[in-house]
Specification:
heterodimer; A: 334 residues; mainly alpha; 0% strand; B: 304 residues; MetI-like fold; transmembrane helix (chain B); membrane (chain B); MetI-like_sf (chain B); transmembrane (chain B); Peptide ABC transporter permease (chain B)
């Protein structure tokens, strides 16, 4: 197992270097003089120009610049935002819990509904219920989630007035941030009103972000359930006279879950991409919205830092998924 | 993945002729009602897009100052002049949707062509030559895959400056690794089979082996991936348009139409509802068609 882990880690090294090169090249690939570009139409004083040039080290050889970038990365130094002048890493870290909280709720929504839906569709194969579930999941899979979000806002926030339109919590509450998760922080503070308000604000964004993962999980659960249901050992279990509940729950589902777990893990990249759209629609103060703002404000150091940090997160999660897969399916390890 | 190709190859080889193959493919494909429906729908959208100047009731850029935010025809205030209503500056939504189909379909088609050609070329190189060529290509693709697709596309658009061409290049770039991976896996599976060896002994060079011998036998999964990429490209183009990073206004692109309509969401639901509905239906129908293609080309192939 340790060897498996080390091999997987070693395989990550070239990708890691590649990601850093992409992020490094990002600012330098901007057409024209990057500093004038960042300054925008307002122009820039000669003094500030020189200051920025030395800040980015554009006056030194490329390889030295890359080395500085890399060593800065290991110290957690990703430069400063051009808009707020605070370190990019702080900007990222202060917004990351919001995205994480949203993603966890979205994934929970997707798994809690998608998994049983897939199992039911497989058991009822060919029946109306199966066709309905397959149809709904194909629709969810094809959904432009930015439109889906607007529709839900129009219905639940506009017409019905049930849910808030934006933000993470009603402004009448103030909760001291501890974990950055509004739901957990409000529980730590023992403020039930704030907790409910946080949940209330989470419902719509989590549904929107969870829609595509839900469809993918339901499809995958159904197809791997069908695959396992055709295996000899399932037939043996049935022939032994086990109840069909036991055959499905113990013999089939547990084996079908192996491939479903992998698919669930792979949703993380999708969640982060979806977070960009979801956070924009719901004005959710997470890294997705932050990246969009950074791009439109030409805050290139923030975009660069965001790119590299998000890629790291995706890489680490994929590694964890690989390891989890190795744990549940020992054949992979060898 | 490799079995997929081999089973296809063997079933195709049996009764011979191309016409027979086409016929058996069509009977498998049309066995799925969903796939057939998807095909008809897409053909219809394509036709409407091609004939846009003749079928659209109005000029998509024409602003009728006397008809701002007119509701669709089934409302009391609606009129047959603007069947699906008008937007905030008095442009006909139906006409804009019809012209928008041109942008969505043609950009997405270009995306698929670019990423498929590039992906096939790199995948063939990687699978055929193996060694360091393969290592370099797969590692670079791993790097591309490490970024969430929309984020990478946004980053590329930021470098290239927002617009139609940069959105197209960015999304093609993001789709590339999938084609590379599929082609590589298929080539590795096929490379050591007898017909390839026979062709090599007959004196075929590298280029001939790669493009004439191997490639035709690796096409099945690539065709299915192409439909999947096509629907993803439509969604991504619309997402970029929605974020203001894709096709720029006043071009009638579906995603950009949604972005413009957003602020009138509560007062004019039609301006938001129809562009999104068109995106959803188009993507859904292409996916239905893709499912049918997959089942017809090989039942073992799964799309997760």
């Amino acid at each position: 197992m340790l060897r498996f882990l080390l091999v997987k880690l070693a395989q990550l090294v070239p990708t890691f270097i590649g990601v850093t090169i992409v992020a490094f090249a990002f600012i330098r690939l901007l057409p024209g003089d990057p500093i004038l570009l960042m300054a925008g139409e307002r122009g820039i004083s000669a003094e500030r120009y020189a200051q920025l040039q030395s800040q980015f080290g554009f006056d030194r050889p490329l390889i030295v610049q890359y080395w500085d970038f890399l060593s800065g990365l290991f110290r957690g130094d990703l430069g400063n935002s051009l808009v707020t002048h605070s370190p990019v890493i702080h900007e990222f870290m202060s917004r990351f819990p919001a995205t994480m909280e949203l993603s966890i709720f979205a994934l929970a929504f997707a798994v809690i509904i998608g998994l049983p839906a897939g199992v039911i569709a497989a058991i009822r194969r060919g029946k109306t219920l199966d066709h309905t579930i397959v149809g709904i999941s194909l629709t969810g899979y094809s959904m432009p989630i930015f439109w889906w979000g607007l529709l839900l806002i129009m219905l639940f926030s506009g017409t019905l007035g049930w849910t808030p339109v934006s933000g993470r919590m009603s402004f009448i509450y103030f909760i001291q941030p501890v974990t950055g998760f509004m739901t957990i922080d409000s529980l730590i503070a023992g403020d039930w009103g704030a907790f409910l308000s946080a949940l209330h604000h989470l419902i719509l964004p989590a549904i929107v972000l969870g829609t595509i993962p839900l469809a993918v999980i339901a499809r995958q659960t159904r197809s791997s359930m069908l695959e396992v249901l055709g295996e000899d050992y399932v037939r043996t279990a049935r022939a032994k006279g086990l109840s069909s509940y036991r055959v499905i729950m113990v013999h089939t589902l547990r084996n079908a879950l192996i491939s479903v777990i992998t698919v669930i893990g792979l949703q993380v990249g999708l969640l982060l991409a979806g977070a960009i759209l979801t956070e924009t629609i719901f004005s959710w103060p997470g890294i997705g919205k932050w990246m969009i703002d950074a791009i439109s404000r030409r805050d290139y150091p923030s975009v660069q830092g965001g790119l590299v940090l998000i890629a790291f997160i995706v890489m680490i999660v994929n590694l964890l998924v690989d390891v989890a897969y190795g744990v549940v399916n020992p054949r992979i390890r060898h | 993945m490799s079995q997929v190709i081999s089973s296809k190859g063997s079933s195709a080889a049996a009764p011979g002729t191309f016409r027979y193959q086409l016929k058996s493919f069509w009977s498998d494909f049309s066995a799925s009602r969903g796939a057939l429906f998807g095909l008809i729908f897409i053909a219809f959208v394509l036709l409407v897009a091609l004939l846009a100047p003749w079928v659209a009731p109005h000029d998509p850029a024409m602003q009728d100052r006397a008809a701002l935010l007119v509701p669709p025809v089934w409302h009391a205030e609606g009129s047959w002049n603007y069947i699906l209503g008008t937007d905030a500056v008095g442009r006909d939504i139906l006409s804009r949707l019809i012209f928008g189909a041109r942008y969505s379909l043609s950009i997405s088609a270009m995306v698929v062509v670019i990423s498929m050609c590039g992906g096939i070329f790199l995948g063939l190189l990687a699978g055929y030559f193996r060694g360091w060529v393969e290592t370099v290509i797969t590692r670079v693709m791993d790097v591309v895959l490490a970024f969430p697709s929309l984020l990478l596309a946004l980053g590329l658009v930021a470098i290239l400056s927002p617009g139609l061409t940069s959105a197209m290049i960015a999304i093609a770039m993001v789709q590339l690794p999938y084609f590379v991976r599929l082609t590589r896996a298929a080539v590795i599976g096929e490379k050591n089979r007898e017909y390839v060896t026979a062709s090599r002994l007959a004196g075929a060079g590298h280029m001939r082996l790669m493009f004439n011998t191997l490639l035709p036998n690796c096409m099945a999964p690539l065709i299915v991936q192409a439909t999947l990429s096509f629907s993803t490209a439509i969604l991504d183009i619309a997402a970029l348009g929605f974020l203001g990073m894709g096709v720029q206004p006043p071009t009638p692109e579906w995603g950009a139409m949604l972005a413009n309509a957003r602020e009138f969401m509560t007062s004019a639901y039609w301006a938001v509802t129809f562009p999104g509905l068109v995106i959803l239906l188009t993507v859904l129908m292409i996916n239905l068609m893709g499912d049918g293609l997959r089942d017809a080309l090989d039942p073992k192939m799964k799309r997760s």
